[in-house]
Amino acid sequence: MPSDSEAPSSQGGASSGEEYEAASREPSSSSPPPAKRPRAGPQPKLTDLLKSASKEQLVSLVVHLNDDAGGELEGRISALLPPPDLSRVGPPLRDLKAALLEHGRMLAECKRFGALLDYSLFALGVTDSMPHWDADAHNKPKLQAAKALEGLLVKALKAAAPTPDQRAQVLQQLERLELPLQAARAALGAA
After folding, report:
1. Residue 2 has pLDDT above 50, yes or no
2. Which of 29-38, 74-83, 153-162 ranks highest by mean pLDDT?
3. Helix 164-175 and helix 136-160, axial crossing angle in degrees, nearest 10
4. What residues contact residue 113 under an 8 Å CB cut-off, 6+ apart?
């Protein structure tokens, strides 16, 4: 009987090359079993997949696809995008208007006219920076806030009796704004 170190004889035994091939075909006990394939069930539709993604994920996906296409998709994507949904903008603008007016009215009720003068100018600046929309309906909160704040400013001007230098400073601040503030300008002696 041949020892383990001897090569098997060519009679009925396998050569060492054949033994290696046979061993390499047999699974070893130390390697993991092959991964099971998931069952092929119905795949979700693309629209369902997109609905489940967050805004950040969708932006990342579109940018990645455009980058993969060498930037060639940007024009097509831009042309296909619908206009922004402005209905979501209305409530925050109305909330901003309410907050600005609430604080101004509180100062007027407390007869803090010097503070009301400063606050009215600040709040008019905030109101002036609110977006201007093509549709008049979307501009209502901005114009309503401007009109109410202008009324508070006129009230403060009459009650606080600012010096001529202070009046000039207020007028200068109003001139920087794009809001229609005729009543405030008239109260300052400017037309």
Report:
1. no
2. 153-162
3. 170
4. 107, 155, 156, 159, 160
Mean pLDDT of 84-108: 88
Position 37: which residue type? R
**Cβ contacts of 14 within 8 Å, gap of 6 or more:** 8, 22
CA 173 to CA 127: how far, in whole Å?
13
**Secondary-structure percent of the chain, ordered helix, strand, coil, rounded to 5:** 60, 0, 40
How far is 134 from 131, CA to CA, in rounded Å?
10
> What pLDDT, on the 0 to 100 scale, is given for residue 152?
97
Residue 172 near residue 184 (C-beta atoms within 8 A): no
Cα–Cα distance for residue pair 191/173, rounded to 1 Å? 15
Q: Do the beta carbons of residue 122 and residue 173 sit within 8 Å? A: no
Place of tokens 């369902």: 48
Token pair listed for 191? 């037309």
Spatial contact of 101 and 149, defined as CB atoms under 8 Å apart: yes
Cα distance between residue 118 and residue 153, in whole Å: 9
Residue 95 clears pLDDT 50, i.e. is over it:
yes
